[in-house]
Amino acid sequence: MTVHVVGAGVAGLAGTLALVLAGRRAMMHEAAPAPGGRARALPDGTDNGTHALLGANRAALRFLSAIGAREAWVEPEPEGLPVLDLADGSARQVALSPLRWIDAQSRPAGLSPGALLALLRLAAGGPDRSVAQALGAHPTLLRSLAEPLTVAALNTPAEEASARLLGTVLRRLGRPGAARLFVAARGLGPDLAAPAVATLACHGAVLRAGRRLRAIAVQDGRAIALDFGEEKVALGPEDAVLLAVPPWEAARLLPGLPVPEAHAPILNLHFAHATEGPVRFLGLLGGLAQWVLVRPGGVSVTVSAADAAIALPEEEIIRRVWPELRLAARRFRLEGDWPPAPPPARAVREKRATPRHGLGPRPMPPRLPLANLALAGDWTLPDLPATLEAAVLSGEAAAAALL
Description:
By secondary structure, the chain is of the alpha/beta class. The protein contains 10 helices and 18 strands. It is globular.
């Protein structure tokens, strides 16, 4: 039995690992030149985007351990997340764990008893509404905590994001250690994609990049062939397919499949900036930049739910973001030189980074749309945000369905 894994993003990599550990032969096919999907390294070595994990992401952390990469993901801010409000210049170090909010200096701004009660009600669930509606009576907490968490986890503006789905995130963060923050020390290439491919190769899995699946031949409810254009792969009676592609590709290959149709963008900006200090992770409020990851080789900025920013010219993005970074660097005493003129930078735009996590039911595709074909992808788990955690869980679920 050979399982053909189409798509070598995190979902495909996790699904392949589950398959080979169960003794199955796996062949991976990836349309892009390199594996990783949205969590990939770019040709210049920078990341496609900043991907962070929390202690609550147990499946993703377990996957990193399985590929020998767990130690490469470091905790940049163990004492709390440095947050700078660009509107008034105030700065604070916010504890990521709610259990530490008993200390007034570690609380997010606006955490009054009434605001805390509203946050607990949001975490408890109930009728769905937007995050902005759920915390509308507490605008300071909405701005300082709920809105940044919403765009980070759901990649959807608070005005339309599902409070019920954010409540799922909050419940997971309430456990001890669940709010610890981890980032790849060197980057997604050396600290995720490369060790995953190397581990899979040790188990006999083969990766063939630059192969876009053109069509799936179906007969009697089974996939019988995969058309890659110049090559057609016939499937034997015991062969199977794990399809780990974006929703629009899945809908093209399997007409009639229910998939998310509305997507939200993410904008990432990478500055060439050498520092000798440790890896740092900062939050910014009131500006264009939202999250700042500082590594020895450069600085990466992420703008989630970037509906307004995604169309801006690269020169304008750089012009607006660099002064924000300089303010944060001075306020939090970041090492290195932060001159007035911005260093070389590049913008990376993901126009369809994730589904929009708004109100109402989300499409729930079947895990096995064909008898020998299983779906994977963060978008196939409608009860979770489309994150690395969901990607890993979906890959493992698809592998289990085929096994």
